[in-house]
Amino acid sequence: MSFAYSVTDLRRIEREALAGGLPLMERAGRAAADFLGRRLGRDRKILILAGPGNNGGDALVTARYLFQAGYLVEVVTPALAQRPYSGDAERAWLGWLAAGGQAAADFDQTGDYGAVVDGLFGIGLDRPLTGEYVRLVERIDQLNRPVLALDVPSGVLADSGAVPGAAIRANWTLAMLAPSRGLFTGAALDRVGELHCATLGVEPDQRGLHPLPVLAQAPETCRRLLRRQDSHKGSYGSVQILGGNDGMVGAALLAGRAAVAVGCGRVSLGLLARNPPSVDPLQPELMLHGPGLLPAGDIAVVGPGLGQDATARRVLAERIEAPQSLLLDADALNLLAKQPALRTALRQRQAPTLLTPHPTEAARLLDCATAEVQAQRFEAVQKLAETFAAIVVLKGAGSLIASRETCAINHSGGPALANAGQGDALAGLLAGLWAQGLAAFEAATIAVWLHGRCCDTLLARQPGRLAVSASAIIAESVEQLGLALEPPAS
Ligand SMILES: NC(=O)C1=CN([C@@H]2O[C@H](COP(=O)(O)OP(=O)(O)OC[C@H]3O[C@@H](n4cnc5c(N)ncnc54)[C@H](O)[C@@H]3O)[C@@H](O)[C@H]2O)[C@@H](O)CC1
Ligand SMILES: Nc1ncnc2c1ncn2[C@@H]1O[C@H](COP(=O)(O)OP(=O)(O)O)[C@@H](O)[C@H]1O
Ligand SMILES: [K+]
């Protein structure tokens, strides 16, 4: 299991390591030089961009090590004329000069560079790049050379993953000490490239820190799903799915099929459509009813294809009042956003609640713009978890799973999941796992990881595929969950 950190936590790790006398900048520059050294022949010239702060200091140490190893190195320090270096970065600057290095304020757009090192800004950047930095980033883009970003691609906000303006598009990002949480979510994912970490010999003392688990592999909690011999279908829970209004029956079917695929004991659908099917021929295990005749389940899912008519509102209000575990998705969330009385009732529930908004649904619930949610994904998901006393999955690139106490970041899946039906499949996977006795947060982390993992494996089998369907994900989830349950290799 790997972890990501807020900038506040990273500053603390850095402070404590520096107080212990560790030469962090020297190690950071060394790590970056080694990283490039393993990937680039000595005959190639390397362009190094050094910004005004310590990220620039890292870049200058990188330059020195590469230069001393025999590489041709060209250093650009766009801010030097305006602001002298200080502290560790000043020592790095003096070290670079002492090694015989030079710096220019600009680079040659036609230069034949083997690679570019981006040391403009790291975790210190807290606003959009401006002026000369924007032009520099644009010109680096036009160079079209491999870019190694030091710590964070410049222009990406390390704490949030937001990219409020121009930003470096890296092929590799080498995070220093430990990766910042913003590298794993939102717009940052289009800038980071392949993520690596140089721990600089520091093992953070976790006391007082809030590391966020990064779900790159199957969560260990998966193994809680392993079954006793002496068990029966009642041991693996029941899910009722309410939705499937006119024209959207498929959404409820997808959710139901997904719940069956991950092993839920019994799955019933309460369909709101006027002429609902009486059987799903592709998944006859599903029990199809009208919303009024549905047997109670351990978990109710309200939302897939729900619509927003009067029946949808009534069904939602009833389920909020019921003493069952409750998962709300899609139009259930939109109705919630519109109706203060439903929100109040939801907050007062005793049984566990789970919400799975995509960013626009989250924005409606928080009464703000989607862009505001995306600019502050960690705060948004935390606020929803607190406001509704719920476990919340904020979907989209780098989905976040939050309780009031903690937050995990998903690192599987990708844009091939950006198609209608995937939210329904996720809701079904989640409810099907939750019904088997896991805690809501555990079920959510496994489901979100599994959903993305299925996407990754389908793409690996057919590289270049643009999209995968929800049906394909559900079929794949059987095998991938099975693999996740295998004992760890010793
Ligand atoms: N102190 C050390 O020895 C270490 C520093 N490290 C490096 O230091 C970085 C953090 O350094 P800093 O805190 O100096 O921050 P940065 O080097 O990320 O630079 C930010 C500096 O520029 C200013 N700034 C912010 N936004 C700006 C904008 N849009 N336009 C112009 N200026 C802007 C800020 O006021 C700040 O001083 C890390 O990302 C990492 O690369 C790591 O190597 C660990 C060790
Ligand atoms: N670019 C992306 N990267 C990673 N995951 C994505 C991306 N786009 C969509 N997804 C995932 O696909 C699912 C889509 O859910 P949602 O938007 O609710 O779809 P639906 O149309 O089925 O309601 C979510 O789990 C989301 O995280
Ligand atoms: K950088």
What layout of secondary structure does this protein have?
Blueprint: E1 2-4, H1 7-19, H2 24-37, E2 45-50, H3 54-68, E3 72-76, H4 87-98, E4 113-119, H5 131-143, E5 147-150, E6 172-176, E7 194-198, E8 212-215, E9 238-243, H6 249-261, E10 266-271, E11 287-289, E12 299-302, H7 310-321, E13 325-328, H8 330-338, H9 340-347, E14 353-355, H10 359-366, H11 370-375, H12 377-387, E15 391-394, E16 400-402, E17 407-410, H13 422-434, H14 440-461, H15 470-484
Parallel strand pairs: 2-3, 2-4, 4-5, 5-6, 6-7, 8-17, 9-10, 9-12, 10-11, 12-13, 13-14, 14-15
Antiparallel strand pairs: 1-8, 15-16, 16-17
Helix pairs in contact: 2-3, 3-4, 6-13, 6-15, 8-9, 8-10, 10-12, 13-14, 13-15, 14-15
The structure holds ligand NAX, adenosine-5'-diphosphate and potassium ion.
Summarize the structure in short.
The protein contains 15 helices and 17 strands. It is elongated.
Number of domains: 2
SSE-based structural type: alpha/beta
How many H/I helices?
Answer: 15
The third-level CATH topology of the largest domain is UDP-N-acetylmuramoyl-L-alanine:D-glutamate ligase
CATH architecture of the largest domain: 3-Layer(aba) Sandwich
Low-confidence stretches: none
Mean pLDDT: 96
How much of the residues is beta strand, in percent? 15-25%
Number of strands: 17
Ions and ligands: ligand NAX, adenosine-5'-diphosphate, potassium ion
Cα distance spanning the termini: 16 Å
Largest sheet strand order: 1-8-17-16-15-14-13-12-9-10-11
Going by CATH, the homologous superfamily of the largest domain would be Ribokinase
